[in-house]
Structures are given as structure tokens and as C-alpha cells.
Input
Amino acid sequence: MARTPKKIRSEMGWSNAASITVRGLDLCSGILGKFNLGDFAFLEITGCKPSASQSLVFNAMLGTLVEHGMTPMVIAARLTYLGAPESLQGAVASGILGMGTTFAGTAEGSARLLQEAIKPDTDPAELPTIAEAIVARHVANRVSIPGIGHPVHKPIDPRTRALFKLAEANGLSGRYVALMKLVASEAERVLNKPGQLPVNATGAIGALSSELDIPWRLCRGLAVIGRTIGIVGHLAEELRNPIGHEIWKRAEEESSEHHRT
Amino acid sequence: MARTPKKIRSEMGWSNAASITVRGLDLCSGILGKFNLGDFAFLEITGCKPSASQSLVFNAMLGTLVEHGMTPMVIAARLTYLGAPESLQGAVASGILGMGTTFAGTAEGSARLLQEAIKPDTDPAELPTIAEAIVARHVANRVSIPGIGHPVHKPIDPRTRALFKLAEANGLSGRYVALMKLVASEAERVLNKPGQLPVNATGAIGALSSELDIPWRLCRGLAVIGRTIGIVGHLAEELRNPIGHEIWKRAEEESSEHHRT
Amino acid sequence: MARTPKKIRSEMGWSNAASITVRGLDLCSGILGKFNLGDFAFLEITGCKPSASQSLVFNAMLGTLVEHGMTPMVIAARLTYLGAPESLQGAVASGILGMGTTFAGTAEGSARLLQEAIKPDTDPAELPTIAEAIVARHVANRVSIPGIGHPVHKPIDPRTRALFKLAEANGLSGRYVALMKLVASEAERVLNKPGQLPVNATGAIGALSSELDIPWRLCRGLAVIGRTIGIVGHLAEELRNPIGHEIWKRAEEESSEHHRT
Amino acid sequence: MARTPKKIRSEMGWSNAASITVRGLDLCSGILGKFNLGDFAFLEITGCKPSASQSLVFNAMLGTLVEHGMTPMVIAARLTYLGAPESLQGAVASGILGMGTTFAGTAEGSARLLQEAIKPDTDPAELPTIAEAIVARHVANRVSIPGIGHPVHKPIDPRTRALFKLAEANGLSGRYVALMKLVASEAERVLNKPGQLPVNATGAIGALSSELDIPWRLCRGLAVIGRTIGIVGHLAEELRNPIGHEIWKRAEEESSEHHRT
Output
């Protein structure tokens, strides 16, 4: 049985000798010098130019996960750079591969939770009941609720406070943000952990992505964009102040010293 | 002989329960909502907040390579997403791994060429002689000059025109840009290829990175940041309109059809 | 509250000027020339030298997924090689990143299914009842059962037949293999799909890994080892007969031709 | 000007419902249970079944780089696994991305050196003169000679001794091995570093790949195959004895402690 071929068609971009077109706009006259980088990312992902409010909030969302110090991801990137300094793209790739379930997965998970719970006609008055059901379901299944809790940032994650404040000031704090907050406070109540389960940065990103109609399957991509910038920043520091070699040698020596004595 | 341990120290970022500090600024009160994404990248890489002029030019530089249609990189990312949709970070990594010598390497190469040729005390009057020497050396060694020529965008690469115009309007067009242009015109003259060897987009990025004091070893990282955004954009389209599967099946069928008949 | 540091210690390998020790064996006198590559992988993963039977079966398991023609993974690797031929490691990495839930994930999933179902004291007579419960649970949850069914290889996956025959001839076909077969036949019966849900290659690998006491979390690694070899094979062909460029240009042209007319 | 399409054709493998064919052999009846994993890699790369001698030497070559203790590559893989344990393929990819110029690049470089120096009609008597010219050229250009020297393994790299002995016993020690040895001794003489510049493991692999007619551009792939196995081995240990977390926390604490006091 023969396969029916399907037409390959893309609306992302195309070019000829004199121009490059991106999502219907001329790159050189319509985007460069006019869109900042976060706005360009919004155009790529949604197909639309962001409003001033959307621009402010979306740039802040992407910026939230850029830098968090000496994470496993940036250490992996520094170690890879040590072996392949001629292939910086490989060091960056090595770093973003650590953006899995532990970190970026929770942005995806919280967005999914919210997008599956709220329908176009969901009345805001129903949100407390929805939050109760979400918490009850996770507690019954003994699984953690994505987007709440942080080992360090408590009782409040300062990134969430900043993002939610910005969203509210820009008219982008709607039902998804409200539900995310309700889930966190309900979880603290049910699990008797006051001040222990704030909405964390990935929960805030999940909620705001939902406000912007970004599908949950893409939320991890927002985290990856931000962290790519942070990894390049760490590689810039590694050039000035190499520490990958030191981390390697210490681990190598300690891990085998019981064989040497 | 024992190794002398070295202190591990980073200035990129650190955090405590209530705050995250990035390059000396408070992330939540000083960056989110105040820095657009390109400005944040500038801070990460250089340690400084960009001026208004630097912000405009740097955001445009990073935006230049975001989108160029159905490149090998975005096809690789779409094919990887097909096999591992739960790991979007892997699909992005798969795509950026194609940012090697063919593409991003020329941004690095042109920046290196310029940064090695111009010293702090180089007089602009010397630039034509320097350009002649650069072209002569590459011609003698039979190697191509990074940053000039493009299979499609000629006699002018429209991205270069846009970037150089923006740089000039913002007071960021100095000796490096001048030298890059001289190298291109000298190469067209010596090789007798008028209109065939314009400064291309990676040459423009290499020149402007040099104007901004960004070391050539990092230029590939700028390309990677931009293209990461483009790859996430293509994955967003792949979710709405999957084409990876079709590309795969066609290649699979055609590549083995001589065995089936 | 200070963290309690933990000792870093590894038993994998260590070296001095005159020797390299791997899992307690001298690499140069005890492994090279004596262990074939699959046996070495067995040593790395389990810490033991395989018996002759284990060697035969384990080499076959690793070989099963090496080559399956023009898969999405090898196309991604070829496209990445196009952009970064100087970094073959990046092309290989790009390819293996597609070994996610769709492919390798099912080896992991079937091994998990079996390892969670069979306890040390499970009587073989209980296996049919266990298989019924597994199928009933998956059907009730409307999720597919890992390790059974294949779009092309039916009513029997020839790789499974070969692997299970080899395992039986070598005394390695025990309760896990038996349960995997029972799950497949029970699923065909319950879902009324005779000849449609054979144990597939990843199901066979999941079952045989379990027979060899390899934890299910590592099964995906076995698939990755095999496919890495296949990807290098395809890159060897790409050097002799480049096709990545053609796949790219066709996709690029077709995807944007509606903009050109 | 329209592009002339090219036929896409591959000889690697293809399949139908009942069989998988690999390089002309039936996978299930002709390879599984008959080829060990190294032999299968030889078939993939060269298209031929190895002779008994080739099998012994090639399996040893691939085994040489499997394990070298706590290298930067395996630490990167362990750190990536920490963030994305559900995507083991990403952790492996993260590790092999460090196989760049520092490590695997020298296998490639030494093979290239030898393959460019020896022509089909090169008389073995000419080899000392060729070695002198190679060393003189590298010394004049102030670049290091790939394949010789090692920070730890000197005056002899034990892996080289084992590989060359095996090759000689199997009739695979020809002009390439002879030239590699001559280059090392000439370099020690010219640079006055007796016992400091032995042929190292990657030099031995480069020489033996050349004896087996494997193009130098693929040698890095042999290193990647071996190291992939080693990385999976380390991830198996990480499951039993996690150390990635400890390496991370120590680096994080130390790198920012100057900010806390």
C-alpha cells in the first residue's frame, strides 16, 4: 500500500537574492533595528508582533531563566568546552541538554496543568474549586505539583513576584495566573506546609505562557532560549577565567584516590 | 608531584532565599521588566549594561541569524523532535550542532581576522594596506576569506546593509567595519569577481562584534543564541504543521527503492 | 544550614603513567585483544566479564538496533555533518538525540514493565495472570503497552525471533522473556488484533536486559550504543555519497515555493 | 537557474515486513549471533566482514578509548543526567560533545598526517625521510604533531604498545605504523625530549585506521563509538552511586562564597 505524499510547506521564512522574509515581514527593513530579541522570539513563536505590554512581559519571562549561577548545565558546558573549544555550539548544546524534567520540565508541566484545567468558558468563580481538584488529584496520586515549591526561594520566589507584578501592571494577569496562585495556596493548606510551596519561576512562566496563548508543549523552549544566553555568558567567563579544568582534576583525583593508597 | 589547586570563583550570578544577583544587579528589581532579551545577553557576555546605541545594534546583530527558512539545522531539529517529542531541549540541541564552520564559523573567522589585524594604535589610514595584505595572504594560501561572499545574497547581502546602516547611525561603525568593507572590495578586485564577494551577514556580525569589544572566540555564540530562537520557532510550526515525518518517509523510500524492484 | 559533603568515589577506571585499570582489570594486558567490543560494554555496565552465553546474547542485543536504514536519526546526523564536518562528534550527538520515547523509550518501558512485575520469588505459573493484569491495566488507562507492535514488522518481528532463539539456545530465556511473550499474545487476544502486536525488537531487548539483571533505566543506553555505530556508518557513506545536501535543498525549495509564484 | 535534482540512494540498510538487510546481509540470520559488536561496526564503516585478524585489531582499537576514568566527558554526562534523567540519550550526547580537538581530534589528525604522506607506491625505505620532513614542517610552523606525547603516559603509552603488538601479531603492522613510530622518535630527537613524545593512543588508532583503509575523516567516529560505551558505563555507576550532585554543589558553593561573606 503506497503512502500518500503530503505537501511540505512552511510559513517561517524564505529568501531571494535581495531579501529575507520572516513571518511575512521583511527582515532587513521591518525587523532588524525595530524588534528587540525577545520581540523577535515572540514573532517566531506566535506569528505576531507583540503589543507593548506583551513585549515587556515576554522579554521578562525569557530573561527569568537566563542566569542562576553555577548550575549543572553551565558546568557541563564548561567541561565540554575544555575538550572541544573549536566547537562552541557543542558546549552550548551540552549545557541545554540538562534542561529536562528537573528544571524546564516544570514550566511545561505547570502550563499543561493550567491549559487542561481552564476552558474558554471557564468562569473565574470556578477557579477555587478547580484548584482544589488539582491538588487533591496530585496528592491522591502521590505526585508533585509542577510549578510550586523551591529548595531555596521561599516563602516567596522573588522571580514569581516580579513576573506577576509586571503582568498585572500590563493587563496580562488573568485566569491562568489566578489558578496557579490558588493551586499553590491550596497545596500549602492541604499538605500543611505554610510558606513552603510558593509558585516558583517555572510555575510563573507556565502561567504567563498560558495567558499569551503559547501551547504548553513549547514552554520548555522558552526556558531553553533563556538558558542558552546564560550558557554563552558562562563560556565568556570561562575564556577569561577557566574553571572547567579545575573542576575536572579535583573530581578525577578524589574519585580514584582510594586506588592509589 | 602534586597539583596546586586553584580557587573556583565566578562573577556570573549567585542567589539566596530572597534574591538572585546577576553580574552585580538584582535580577528581579534591576533586570526583569527593564532589560530586553538582547540587552540581557549583552550584560551576560560583557558584564555591562548596553548604552541605547549598543542596545539597538546588539539586538539587531543577534536577530540577524534567527531565521533563514528551511535550513539543515531546523530540519535536523524537526526530525529529532519526531523521535523525542518529550525532550524539546534535545531537538534544539540537535539543530544548533549544525552551527559549525560552514555557517557560524565564518562569524568567528571574520572577527578573528579583524581583531588580529587591528591594534589599539592602528591608524585608519593604514587600513587599505592591511586589507591588501589580508587578501594577498588568503589568495596565496588558496583559502577563502571568512565573512565575504554568499551563494544567494549578491551583489549585496541585505542583512549587511541593514546592520552597517544601523551601526553608522548609532556611532558604532569604526575601524573594524571599515576594514571588513575594504577586504571585500579588494577581494573582488584581485579575484576579478565584481559584485560576487560582498560582506555577508556573518562578516557583518564579526565586524560589529569587534566594534563592541567581543572576543572572536565568542562570536559563534552570538549566532547560536539567534538560531536557538529560530529553531524553537520552527518547532512551534512543527507542532501545528508536522513536516519532519514527510521528509523522513520520502528519503527512506527513495534511498532504498533500488532494492525493492 | 551547611551541607554535609559526600566523598566522590568511582570504581570505573583510573590510571597512572604505566597502566590504565578498568573495573579492576588491566586495560592493556587484560582487555584489549581479549574482550570484543560488546563484552567490554558488558564489563562497563555490569562490572563483570560475560560468560560465553552472555557474550553471544549481549553482542546480539547491542547489534539489533545498529542499522535500520534511512531513519530520522541518521538523516539528522547527515544534515548536521553538512554544517559542521569538522565536528563529527556533533553529528553523532545530533543523531542519538532522536532516540527518545518513540524508539529507545520502548526498550526502557518494556524492561520497566517486566522488572516491576516479576519479583525474586515470582513463580512461573503466575506469569499468565500477571500478563492479564498488565494488559488490563494498560487497556483501562488507554495507553499503549511498550515493547509490542510494529508498523512494518508483523505478524512477527524477525529481530525478536532471532534474539529469543539465541537466548533460548544459550540458557538465557527465563521468566522475563516468557512474560513478554505472554503480554503480547494476551494483548492480541484482548484487543482482537491477531498477528498485529508481536513482541518488537525493543520489547525483546527489554526482556533480555532483564534476564541479564540490567536495570530498566539503562536500557535506553543499550539502544544508544548500537545506534551510535549505525550513525557513524551512515556518516561514512555520507563522505562517499553525500545526500544531506539534496534532502535539504528539496525541503527548502518545496517549503517556500508557494511564496515564489 | 533551476537546481538539477540528484537521486537519493543508500546502501546501508533497508527492510520489509519479514527482514532487515544491512550492507547486503540479512541482519537476523547473518549478523545477530555471528558478528560481535566491533565486527558489526567494521561492516557498517567499511562494507566488509572483517577477517579474523582485522576483527581482533579493530575490536581492540574501538576498546582503547572506552574508559579513562573521571574525564570531563563523563562528568558532563553525569551532570546532564541530573537535570534530565528521563532522557539518557541527552546525557550521552552531552558527554560525546567533548570529543573535540583536544581528544578525538588527534586520532583524526594523526591519520590525516599518515594518509597524506604515504602514497600507494611509497617505498618503505623512504619513510625515515618522510618522517624527518613531517617533524621539520611542524617545528617550523610551531604546531604540535598529532598522535605523539601524553601528560601522564610516558615514556611509553601502554595502550600503544598493546595495540601495535596485536597489530604485528596479526599482520596489520605496515607502513603507516612504521611511519608513526618514526615520527615520534624523530620528534624526540629534534626537540631533544627523549622519552617525552611517545606515540599515544590516538596516534596508534590513527595509524591502525590507516592500515585498515579507514579515511582519516572518520577516525574521530571510532573514538566516539568507544567513548559512548564508557559514558553509558559511568551513567550505570551514577545510578548506583550518584556523584554529579556533589560535584555541582561544591562548585556552586565555592564559586560564589566570596559574595556571601
In short: Chain A touches chain D through 34 residues (CB under 8 Å). The first helix of chain A runs from residue 27 to 31.
